[in-house]
Amino acid sequence: MTNVIEQRRLERLLLTALIFVLGFQVMRFLFASLTWYLRDTLGIGVIDLVPISLAPFVLGALLPILSRFIPVKRAFWLGVALLVGSRFLIQLTGQPGLDYWAASVATLAFVGLTPFLLSLGREPFVGGILLGLAVDSAIKGLGFSLDIAFQPGWRAVIAVGAITLTVIWAGLQIDSLPKSGVGGPGSLRLLALAPYLFVQFLIFQNQGWLSAVIGVSGPLAMLIVSALNVLALVLAARVQANRWVLVLAASLVAGAVIAAEGSAVLFGILILLAVPVSGLVLGGIVPETDKSSLGASGSQLVIAMTFFLILGLAYYLPLDMNLGFSQAAVRITAAISLFGFGLTGATRVGRSNAVGANDWVLAGAAALLPLAALVATFSQDIETGPASEDVIRVMSYNIHSAFNIDGVLDIESIARVIEDSQADIVGLQEVPRGRLLSGTSDMLTLLRLRLGFEHVAYFGTTDPVWGNAILSRYPITDIGTDYLPKVGTPMRRGLLGATIQVGGTEILVISTHLQHVNNQDTHDDDPMADLYPVHLEQINTILEDWGGRSPAVLMGDFNARPDWDQIGLVTGSGWVDSWEEAGMGEGFTSSSGNPQFRIDYVFHTSDLVAVDVGVFQSTASDHLPVIVDIAFD
Question: Cα(215)–Cα(57) distance, rounded to whole angstroms?
């Protein structure tokens, strides 16, 4: 009898965990579709996107409501069918419009299924979330952070098929689905899932954030995350929860989130402690079911998932408009609210542990996936440097977070553009290293491994995981960074400088990205006048940091046309426009689908000479890259 009970417990755990894995994947995909397909490709305004994005989450309440009129198991299986069917559609189609609708339906189904999962019991629910996070991150680790939903080919289809078949098998093993939930004030604690999942996706499960802040390689960062996820399950299963343990755990989790953009040492210490104890916090928050209906918990879970979306919107909307608060404020608010919810768990001493004793074994097995990926990097072909030191080829490329003009994530096309250019030094802009808007993929690691660049530099500007990068075949001996003045604009931008050793000469290479719009109404009438006050201060900061050093190369997306006054500030300070020196034609770089403006530049100091300049035609990004062969004068 004990073996049968244990088997049923394992099946409930697998069912819950893998539904969460599929749910995490489709929610990330939906975030990306809203941003890059609806906003950038179709041109839907940011304000209009808010109700559109809320709809799948709010409508998730339909499944629990439906269970009042039809058998609960039938409502559950309807949700499963919608989730797995839509998830498969995403993997198979590659059509951004169809993918958006599939992601919306799948998200609706996932949100609606969460109350049914809680009805299986507190233990499989808490263990399922923790195991789901562990398996989800492990799968991403095998792809060097690239979400499987964005991976083409039959391997990804087989992997999704294996997950969905396991979900169906586990569900079929459950003879009856209880219609139970949490009533009264206890159900309010379920709202903690919103900040809990938000900080998990933003930071705790984010390879790019960990790598960018503490300075380890991307694959190693994901292996660390996977190991910490295993430990989270171990602690949740083995540590007897008490008041002071839960207070300490909630404090560590909140402290790590608050310190996420601060000292690398402090954050490194706190994250190593916070991820494992976050399982204790979750176990302390989630109450036992105590009501013979989905009841209030069904509503609270749908609200919690909706608030998760709202936190995500609140975190990224300040990049598009001034809302009176910053990204950091949203992150800290999530940390404080999660701490507050964690304290509620500390008042309920004497409860049983929320995770089965051996559930960590499954997470440990999943952790072999990022371990295999890390081992694979040891055999990666790294090009040690170009043969020529007389002429260096540089490229400036705004990669648009690796989403093409159709709104499809296509990192391979970006990589092929860089590869085909045969550039020795590449300055990149709009490089994400783990944003929710970009599927939490670490593009710097993906490009570095795919292209074999030995030397890289990165600077996150809006937060640690979105900004500028430099890839180099030559050794990088020093790195400098600085933020550019915002001058009232919402997005924080910056410059990344790398001292690169080319033979016996050191060259300063700067990659930067200036503001694209200040006041939209003014911009439509006179874009130069709109941007000049902002660009004036941003360019002055660049020139001050440069300090007249030579030889040097300055490149990036300046969001300004060649005849604008701000470009005159650059050339008037001693920089030479490579296109004016060696280019032919207009050299338009934006937008790549129908180029009409030159806003991307490669400048150099007068002791260097541009011997050839070109624009590479590709719609892998909304910008075209500028490629320049530069020789010493």
Answer: 36
